[in-house]
Amino acid sequence: xxxxxxxxxxxxxxxxxxxxxxxxxxxxxxxxxxxxxxxxxxxxxxxxxxxxxxxxxxxxxxxxxxxxxxxxxxxxxxxxxxxxxxxx
Length: 88
Hints:
Oligomer: single chain
Radius of gyration: 36 Å
Order of helices and strands: HHH
């Protein structure tokens, strides 16, 4: 037995129901993405603008160690050494 043909009013109700479901889904996705974006922006405001890879500020101990290494390093003119090597 074939189903009775649906009336125009029933089709209109089904279409209205579908539109509401699709609209509710789209609204949920929109609100969710905006919420994530806003909270991401707020979270980024208190981060270091130089990024996570930025080196920490040098301490006095590290500065003293680098000065000691510089004093122990050999001192010679690199440009003069290169010129000498090119002449040979």
